[in-house]
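Hi F.,

I've been meaning to write this up properly since the lab meeting, where we talked about keeping a consistent format for the predictions we share between groups. The idea is simple: the sequence comes first, exactly as it goes in, then the structure tokens exactly as they come out, then a line or two of notes. No screenshots and no reformatting. I'm using this chain as the first example so we have something concrete to point to.
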Amino acid sequence: MAGISIGFFILWLALAMWVYFDATERGKAAIGWALAMFFLGWALVPLILYLIFRDVGARTAVAPGAGRRQYLYIVSFAGFATLVIGLALLTSTTIARVISEDAVGGEGYRQALASSVTAIIIGAAIWAYHWLRAERRLGSITEDEEFRASFFLHRAYLYTLFGVSWIIAFLSGMWLLGGGLASAFGVEDVDPVAWLPALGPLVVALLAVGTHYLFAFETTSYKESLSRFEAIPAPAVIGVSGAAEAQPAPAPPPAARASAGTTERRFCSHCGARVEADDVFCSSCGEGLRSR
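Output, unedited:
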């Protein structure tokens, strides 16, 4: 039963992440679409609306190989999220069990243990396999357009993982700190079981941030890829209306229109030869011309 629930969770999360990464590549409102899928995806309405509007309006041109690279990062993220949830559930339930056996009974703890270990095994296997494939593929791409799109998605994956991990760390840290201070100040009815298990997700989220920072951002291969990415021009924006693509040239200032519309005739006051409007000296006699 735990495996089935985890499987459905991975599918649901992967679908939401596909919308997020696809919208990111197309320059759409990726966060808004992802949140809609995350909270309302069960109704399929956000997915249907996104499929209708993903190719409508101004958008960034998508480089070849979008399906493969999106698949690798989507499944990597879903697998890592499953791994993190399993670790957080295991640590928080174990902490609660150590504090009080009454809070988590023997049967409840065994069920939680089975679910968390299942999530850890499945999530770790899915994440490790696809993440290693994504990194190897990124290093083997020779075509600049596809490399830029792949690294853009690679960086979006890392920043998204960082952001989610920091949010989890912040919320669980606030919960832990609030409960700890309340207990230290002697507030009544503050049970350690209610706040101390928040240490589990806090530690797991900080480990996620630290490991990805050291083994993803602070690597020579990432810095070399970033330099190559920055040297490649950004993809074109397509889907702009004809009126927007061919904007009329701005109108010249009034002085320029006046000078363009009328030709002023000037003559030298010394020899009578015709001169141009912007001449300073006469081309015939060489005398200076009076300014107007």
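Notes:
The first strand starts at residue 59 and ends at 60.
The radius of gyration is 32 Å.

If this format works for you, I'll send the rest the same way.

G.
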